[in-house]
Amino acid sequence: MNSTTQHILKGSLSVIILKLLEDRERMYGYEITQQVKALTAGEMAITEGALYPALHKLEAEGLLTTETEVVDGRARKYYSLTKDGQQQSVSRTSELRAFMQNLNLILNLKPAV
After folding, report:
1. CATH topology of domain 3-107
2. Which of 11, 36, 81, 88 is the most exposed place for a label (fewest CB within 10 A)?
3. Which pTM was predicted?
């Protein structure tokens, strides 16, 4: 993944997290990274260094709630959307879609002759 893709990914990370949690209800950090990799056939990869600060920020904003469970003798923190998180997922996804449509219009401009 090139640096431009990484930069764009970082800017959309909160929307990606919210959308995945809207779809899957609850996930733990590593599961989120693997789901993004699987959905994009390896084209996008989220590092733990980017993921966990984003998760903590969304939690601080009141959009996520956490629950810790012991799985195979290890504590695993699951993230879920709050009611506000569900609303933000819908609105932020809609805003990003609109932005991408406008960006697509610009990128598909034919050179002026």
Report:
1. Arc Repressor Mutant, subunit A (1.10.10)
2. 11
3. 0.83
